[in-house]
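Please fill in the sequence for the structure shown.

STRUCTURE ENCODING:
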């Protein structure tokens, strides 16, 4: 299992969340975002849409599975993009 905390540098639109969810589906590993008020399965489009990701939020990214390192790298890159 890999875990990384990150502070979001921008707001994510519904299109951004859809794109992230679709790309996350290419990984075998479980990809979870942890917020103080939610546990979000990144591969679940509905889950992603229910909890907005806004600039300044601190989230924890947790990956677990065969390609967990690659999945974590992907999530860190996309969440930290400017």
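FILLED IN BY: designer on duty
SEQUENCE:
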């Amino acid at each position: 299992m890999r875990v990384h905390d990150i502070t979001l540098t921008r707001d994510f639109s519904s299109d951004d969340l859809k794109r992230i969810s679709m790309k996350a589906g290419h990984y075998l590993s479980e990809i979870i975002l942890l917020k103080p008020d939610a546990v979000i399965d990144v591969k679940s489009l509905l889950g992603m849409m229910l909890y907005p990701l806004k600039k300044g939020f601190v989230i924890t990214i947790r990956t677990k599975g065969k390609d967990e390192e690659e999945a974590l790298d992907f999530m860190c890159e996309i969440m930290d993009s400017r």
